[in-house]
Each structure stands twice: as C-alpha cells, then as structure tokens.
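User: I'll paste a sequence; please echo it back and then give the predicted structure.

Assistant: Echoing your sequence first, then the prediction.
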Amino acid sequence: MASEHSPQIGIDRGIVNREMFDQANVERFSYKAKEGLTAEVVNKISDRKKEPEWMREFRLKALETFHNKPLPTWGADLTKLDMSKITYYGDPGVKETKNWEDVPQDIKDTFEKLGIPKAERAYLAGAGAQYESEMVYHNLAKEWADLGITFVNCDEALQKHEDIFRKYFMKCVPPTDHKFAALHAAVWSGGTFLHVPKGIKMDMPVQAYFRMNAEGFGQFEHTLIIVEEDAQVHYIEGCSAPKWEASSIHAGCVEVYVKARARARYSSVENWSRQTYNLNTKRAIVEEDGFMEWVNGNLGSGVTMLYPMSILKGRRARSDMTGIAFAGPGQNQDTGSKVQLLAPDTSCNIVSKSLAVGGGITTYRGLVKVGPAATNARVKVECDALLLDEKSKNFTIPDMQVMTDKVEIAHEATVGKISTDQIFYLMSRGLTEAEANVMIVNGFIEPITKELPLEYAVELNRLIELEMIGSIG
C-alpha cells in the first residue's frame, strides 16, 4: 500500500503557499457555545445533535473525569493553555451534503485551495470535509457504497448505526485514559465513521480534511474505523488552521479496529497553526494476522503531543509506524509511537525522523511493551534527528518493558547536524547554500515521504522548505 512515488523537494516554491493555510475566513456560526467547558455547554451539544440519552450521560461523565484529571506534567509545557478561553463547539450553519456544489462559496473556496475535492476527483474513493465542529461534506463513490461500505460522519453513524457505533465508540481509547481523552469524550463532534465489510479490499483511499477557522476555538472530531476480516482500507487525514493571536486546541480521537487478516493504513499530515495545541490521540487494536500501518507528518502547531499506538492483540498481528516531526522557532513537537505486543509471533517496526531549526524542539517519546504471552515477538525501533542549527534541540525518550525472554528487540537512535563538508561539496557542484540544505533535508526525510500519498508528500516537502526559508542558509 506504499506510494510508488518519492517526490523531491525543489527550490520552486509555487506548489505550496503557506498563506493558503494561514488565511482565515470571516466567522460564520448559526450557533456558538460560550467560552469555557461546563455541563451547560455539554448538554447544549447533545441537545442540538438530538443524541440518545446514553450519549448525553457518557459526555457528562467524561466531563467530570476531565475536571478531576490534572494536566500532564511530562512532555511539552501546557501551562499557557487557558482552557477557560476556548470555545468548545460552533456550528457553521451548513447542512452536510454529498454534492460539492451545494457547499457555501466561502467554505468551498477554502477547501478548493487545500486541494479538496480535486484529490477526490483524481484518485479517492470518497472524501469528507469538516469546518469548525461539523462536517459540511461527505461522499463515497457509488461503486464502493454498493459493496456495503459505510462512510459517514460520526454524528450520522450514532443516529443510523447506533448498535455498532455504541459497541466500538471509545472502547479503544476510554475517556479515563488521560485528561484530553476525557475532554474529547465530553465535546466530540463530527469526524468520520468508516466500516469496511468482510472481504472487501478497497484499492482506492478515502480522505477527510479538518479545518479549524475561528480564533480561540477547539476542534474535537472523532474517527472510528472498523475493518472486518480479510478487508483492506487506506484512510488519509489532513488538518490545518489559520494564524491567530489566541490559542486554539485540537484534541481529536482516532480508533481503528483491524480484524483477523485485515489491513489498515492511516496516513496523516497535521499542519495546524503556531497558536494551536495539537493534543490528538490515535490508537488501533489489531487481531490475528492483521496489519496496521501509521504514517504521520507533524508540523505547524506550536505544541504537539501525539503518539499513535497499536495494540497487537492477535497471534502474528503486525504494525508499521512511520513518522516525521518538524519544529521551527517557538515550536515543541513531542511525538512518537507506542506498541503493545500481547500475543505470540507479533511484530512491529517503528521509524521516526525529526528535524529542528531556529530553536525548535523535537522529542521522540516511545513505548514498547511486550507482554508475557508475546513469545517470539520482534520489535525494531529507529529514530533519527537532524538539527539544522546550534539553537535547536532533540530528545529521545524510549521506554521498553519486556516481560518475556523469547523476543527480539532492537533500538537505535542518532542525532546529527548538517555537515559543512556536505554543504561545501554540493555548492562546489553549482548549488546555492539554500539548495544544498534542502537537498540534504530531502534525503533525510525520504523514507517517510515515500510512504505518503503523492499529493501529501509534495505538500509536506514544500511546507518544510518554506519553514526553512530564512532560518538557515
């Protein structure tokens, strides 16, 4: 399921313009909650969505958990995030549609600039678009819908597929897991529900894009993916927000259930603005002979704490986890991967790349937990960091808990700087110093970009190049 393309960073900067992500529309709300998180806000969300009573109770209980749990004291500094100044729900007043032409022009223009629905027309089986707290567009090609695939927003899934939704919703990531899982459970809205029936192999990906437009806002989409036995799917996620003065928060939640002999790939490029705290939670449960792939690109946000996790529950379950984090001036990218191996013959391969420039901070924070029943388990972890100047920092914090002797565990980590000899050599071949720096960075991140869909790989490359302009060289 890997991309056949491995696009290179070029010096022509015409493909991705940073302004298309940073530009905000005039606010549009048919309803906007008061700032701060209270039972009144949570009840209003449930009322407006006409939810069953069990969901209202679920939200209110999660709200109590949120208030009772402290902020994490490890990782990035979250003390400057004033939770009382955040708006936790806002309805843009747009009825979701399957027809792109019915989306209001200002919202449509925003997504057109970001490549939606151009990508859908080119190579996707389906696409969704969320604006603020609600999905405004969701569509699945008829050929796939006719095979029994369900691709709708989570609010609709709760109403029309309540039994299966309730069976899986926040069972992989319970609200008690941590403070921001509880926050998500209290105020979640929108997102994607994707169910692939037994034996259906989707050879075209589906995509959802989440856009947060308003200042001082929070977005809490829920993604629930169920891949039944012998089925296959590739889900692509994109995220962005404009540049504002006030802080925003993103605390989405992704749950993936990979059944026996099924395969799922989750590709994501999260490109929030510098004022955004990206506190997302992603987790998968993988059954016998199942295969879960995570491919993540993180840049843009001022603070990120994100650690996709695979729970390898069944014999011979596997997971590949590939990620890149980029931190520029004022950014702290605290990212990594987690895996629990619970059954015999399970295996995981983790590759992490990080770059820091202009005083940015990157951290690889990983957990490998091998249970006593996971005999013959195999894990390989490779995390490499590239510092582009003397001011930037990188940290590697692995945690390995191995409860059986019959395992193969390997971990390697490197931290390096761009060599002046390399720069001199490339400049002697006619490149400018900036071009030489870009070429070296391109080679460093190539193992990651080759795993992304072509359009996202190009976007990620260009964004990193734009972040580098004026910082080095």
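Confidence is low (pLDDT under 50) at residues 1-18. The two ends are 37 Å apart (CA to CA).
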